[in-house]
Design goal:
Helices cover 21% and strands 32% of the residues. It has 195 residues and is an alpha+beta fold.
């Protein structure tokens, strides 16, 4: 299945309705856009989670973090995303190439619920670079992950690339893509401090 199909994108073209025989209109008529597919009902967000960029980023980190066996508030996580929101992880293949493992928030939940039942996972933001223009924002967020909150050293670090949109009422996560640091790809100093 191609990537467009996986993302649920489709183009619809409607055949024009039969027209009665009459003179062509003097001015062009507008063509209506195809109806958008009905979005699944999204859980209501906590106002405090989506009021600002700082708040929504903090909520993203908070909602996935917790000790082994602690249930996560998955509806809270869903509420942070736009209905068309997506996630993805960059992963290295054995041949050295890389692939994006694309997923929806529900795919992420399905893939991680069992793991979080048996292991602690605490992800925190170490540094951030932020760009904002009007209703769009891009957050390049350096993360550290620990098995327990009190662990001195993280077992993993990397970058969360977060695209946000504001609809006039609140912020939404449109996309969240991450890549972990590895032996060949170390975090540069500029991403270890706020920029």
């Amino acid at each position: 299945m191609n990537r467009l199909a996986r993302l649920g994108l489709a183009l619809a073209f409607a055949a024009p309705a039969a027209q009665a025989q009459q003179a062509a209109p003097a001015t062009p008529t507008a063509i209506a856009a195809p109806a958008a597919p009905a979005a699944a009902a999204m859980p209501a967000a906590r106002a405090a989670d989506v009021v600002s960029i700082d708040a929504i980023v903090a909520a993203l980190y908070d909602v996935i973090s917790g000790p082994a066996g602690a249930p996560r508030d998955w509806d809270r996580m869903r509420s942070l995303f736009a209905p068309e929101g997506r996630m993805g992880a960059m992963a290295a293949r054995p041949d050295g190439s890389h692939v994006l493992r694309a997923m929806t928030p529900d795919d992420y939940i399905a893939r991680n619920t069992k793991a979080f039942a048996s292991m602690g996972f605490f992800e925190t933001e170490k540094a951030r670079t932020l760009e904002v223009f009007g209703q769009i924002a891009h957050v390049f967020s350096t993360y550290e992950a620990r098995r327990a909150k009190e662990d001195a050293q993280p077992f993993m670090r990397g970058i969360n690339s977060i695209q946000l949109i504001h609809d006039g009422k609140r912020w939404h996560v449109l996309s969240l893509i991450w890549q972990a640091e590895d032996a060949k790809l170390q975090l540069p100093e500029r991403y270890l401090r706020n920029g």
